[in-house]
UniProtKB/TrEMBL annotation:
<dbReference type="GO" id="GO:0005829">
    <property type="term" value="C:cytosol"/>
</dbReference>
<dbReference type="InterPro" id="IPR050712">
    <property type="entry name" value="NAD(P)H-dep_reductase"/>
</dbReference>
<dbReference type="Pfam" id="PF03358">
    <property type="entry name" value="FMN_red"/>
</dbReference>
<dbReference type="GO" id="GO:0010181">
    <property type="term" value="F:FMN binding"/>
</dbReference>
<feature type="domain" description="NADPH-dependent FMN reductase-like">
    <location>
        <begin position="1"/>
        <end position="139"/>
    </location>
</feature>
<protein>
    <submittedName>
        <fullName>NAD(P)H-dependent oxidoreductase</fullName>
    </submittedName>
</protein>
<dbReference type="GO" id="GO:0016491">
    <property type="term" value="F:oxidoreductase activity"/>
</dbReference>
<dbReference type="InterPro" id="IPR005025">
    <property type="entry name" value="FMN_Rdtase-like_dom"/>
</dbReference>
<dbReference type="InterPro" id="IPR029039">
    <property type="entry name" value="Flavoprotein-like_sf"/>
</dbReference>
<comment type="similarity">
    <text>Belongs to the azoreductase type 2 family.</text>
</comment>
Amino acid sequence: MKIVLIAGSNRRNATSTQLLKYMADTLGSQGADTALINLYDHPLPLYAPDDETLDENAAFLIRSVDEADAIVLGTPEYHGSISGALKNALDYLGSNEFLGKPVLSVSSSGGAVGVSSLTHLQAIVRNLHGLNSPEWLSLGGNARQFAADGSPADSGVKQRVARALDTLVSLTRVLRPTSNVKSSEVRV
Ligand SMILES: Cc1cc2nc3c(=O)[nH]c(=O)nc-3n(C[C@H](O)[C@H](O)[C@H](O)COP(=O)(O)O)c2cc1C
């Protein structure tokens, strides 16, 4: 089972990126083949439909999502919506890469929860013809803390992450029956 995780922050130590790194490690330990695309480390030019040449990072993004069985999208909550960096990345993509694939949306916000960005993200996923997971995840306020080993500091957050990933993996098994992971459960 191939899972691509797109970390949509343009900030070096972004908590949304730390969350996606933890998710990638957790999924990897269950046997999933994960690829984390960090838009801070691999920035994309502003999407321009007239461009005749494709940027190297953009080509890698498109290929990675195309090859994935499932997708995790992570964003900081910016002004009640998703980051410009993630929206720009998604503009390079379409139903060719998303059709019928399960998608988990996660956010990090200064306030208690970042549901507004998640709602916007799920609407975009719908328009990409992906399938929104019934779970989503928002880390807000003090929940945005991570231990030295990269895991969420709060045990309740760990449980929420495990549930969200377990649902994504279960959904992927149903929708992409040829994909495989070692275990049906993602544990922390
Ligand atoms: C431009 C900007 C807009 C923001 N807008 C919101 C907002 O609407 N709601 C909120 O709760 N936090 C808002 N924040 C705070 C961020 O959501 C918060 O710092 C979050 O943890 C950033 O995610 P990151 O750690 O992945 O960069 C905003 C921060 C910035 C820089």
